[in-house]
Write a structure and sequence with these properties.
alpha/beta; globular; binds iron/sulfur cluster; four-stranded antiparallel beta sheet; binds magnesium ion; 319 residues; ABC_transporter-like_CS; Rossmann fold; ATP-binding; ATP binding; eight-stranded mixed beta sheet; P-loop_NTPase; single chain
């Protein structure tokens, strides 16, 4: 069966000067040759530090940003070359849940209007909208009587539930959740994650779940991709990635995740230095400035993505 979504060699380069007066045009390679698939009904976690290109990838999938190069296929059909009109009809199938439930809900709109908005855009009649809003609020763990309140009357977790109700309003096929729990208290995070997981089962949803922390996506993901400076450095099913990580960066990220069983002690790998500026990335393997295993080859040669086990992709000279 064809995947619901397929991304091939996706790139997004932003120019940071205009190349005038004989200056060399400079680019930030925000997303640099990223490929992955998402099957129907599955969750792909996409993890990396801020600035690694994960949100830019999500925004290209939503077609809020045009790719510089590469293709996006949805249900086998290329969507990276559509015009604005064609994109509009596609929007129904793609919805987004945002990081900040405080900023992403219009404070002057009642919950009813917020949740209805995508239905208005996609021409669902008023009567049906009103009925659906109340159902959706119940589905996300709120109640019909919340419909006539304003966002400021809700807690962060409740606001994120409203954001999720809005995302579900037009029966999307793919939900891109961009750090949907990062702004919430830890005690609330697992409630929202469980809600997303329940809704996935109930409505056969497919998720791209973006996070900066491997522990957040572990429970919800079927497969996980790890990004560093615009590239996916490792991608595997959850089991392989968490139990048998290969890339030194994945290992370092995982070593920072506390594990419930203290006898399975993992050695903490502390990475030296900060993440380099994407406008001036290191040569060769862009991780070499922080990698504890870097060699001369790493400084000079860009590693290619290799499939080292079925479905387990790594980009590192050690493999
Ligand atoms: Fe480290 Fe070299 Fe592998 Fe890059 S290619 S992750 S620098 S060992
Ligand atoms: Mg982001």
């Amino acid at each position: 069966e064809a995947p619901l979504l397929e991304v091939k060699n996706l790139k997004k380069y932003f120019s940071i000067n205009k190349g005038l007066l004989g200056r060399k045009k400079k680019f930030v390679k925000a997303v640099d040759d990223v490929s992955f698939t998402i099957k129907k009904g599955e969750t792909l976690g996409l993890v990396g530090e801020s600035g690694c290109g994960k949100s830019t990838t999500g925004r290209m999938l939503m077609r809020l940003l045009d790719p510089t190069e590469g293709q996006i296929y949805f249900e086998g059909k290329e969507i990276s070359n559509l015009n604005d009109n064609q994109i509009r009809s596609l929007r129904k199938d793609f919805q987004m849940v945002f990081q900040d439930p405080y900023a992403s809900l219009n404070p002057r709109m009642k919950v009813r209007e917020i949740v209805s908005e995508p239905m208005v855009i996609h021409g669902i009649p008023k009567e049906e909208r009103m009925e659906r809003v109340e159902k959706l609020l119940t589905v996300v763990g709120l109640s019909a009587y919340h419909a006539d309140r304003y966002p400021h009357e809700f807690s962060g977790g409740q606001r994120q539930r409203i954001g999720i109700a809005r995302a579900l309003a037009v029966n999307p096929k793919l939900i891109i959740a961009d750090e949907p729990v990062s702004a919430l208290d830890v005690s609330i995070q697992s409630q929202i994650l469980n809600l997303l997981k329940d809704l996935q089962e109930e409505f056969e949803l497919t998720y791209l779940f973006i996070a900066h922390d491997l522990s957040v996506v572990e429970h919800i993901s079927d497969r996980v991709g790890v990004m560093y400076l615009g590239k996916i450095v490792e991608l595997a099913d959850k089991q392989s990635l968490y139990q048998n990580p290969k890339h030194p960066y994945t290992k370092a990220l995982l070593s920072a995740v506390p594990i419930p069983n203290p006898r399975l002690k993992r050695e903490r790998i502390i990475l030296k230095g900060d993440i380099p500026s994407p406008s001036n990335p290191p040569s060769g393997c862009t991780f070499h400035t922080r990698c504890p295993l870097a060699t001369e080859e790493c400084r000079n040669k860009i590693p290619q993505v290799k499939e080292i086990n079925p479905g387990h992709y790594v980009s590192c000279h050690l493999f």
